[in-house]
User: Which sequence fits this backbone?
């Protein structure tokens, strides 16, 4: 994947429109990414200093970003699940405190030590 310099940030924002996806049965798909010239120069310098290909640095950055985004999504889903459970718990407490006809012992799975 070659690093292409662009003249402005607007060139970076057009990445989504310029991505070309060729769906194949291969395990990898090739993307063309356009980045700002100063960033491309920094990546190239870092690649040269570390004896790696600039494309590998870009690939690692994209992979790490996707991993971070996926972890964020999982955390948000877990937070939503906890929020829903808390709402359900609040409803249960509300029903119990309103004096429902159902005995409290039939709702809770924990029993006092002296109960049978």
Assistant:
């Amino acid at each position: 994947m070659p690093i292409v310099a662009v003249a402005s940030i607007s060139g970076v924002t057009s990445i989504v429109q310029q991505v070309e996806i060729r769906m194949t049965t291969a395990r990898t798909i090739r993307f063309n990414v356009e980045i700002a010239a100063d960033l491309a120069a920094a990546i190239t310098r870092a690649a040269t200093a570390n004896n790696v290909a600039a494309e590998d640095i870009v690939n690692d950055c994209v992979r790490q970003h996707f991993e971070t985004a996926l972890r964020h999504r999982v955390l948000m889903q877990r937070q939503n699940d906890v929020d829903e459970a808390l709402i359900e718990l609040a409803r249960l407490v509300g029903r119990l405190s309103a004096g429902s006809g159902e005995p409290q012992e039939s709702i809770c799975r924990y029993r006092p030590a002296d109960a049978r």
Remarks:
- The mean pLDDT is 77.
- The first helix runs from residue 9 to 13.
- Residues 4-100 form one domain.
- The CA atoms of residues 60 and 66 lie 10 Å apart.
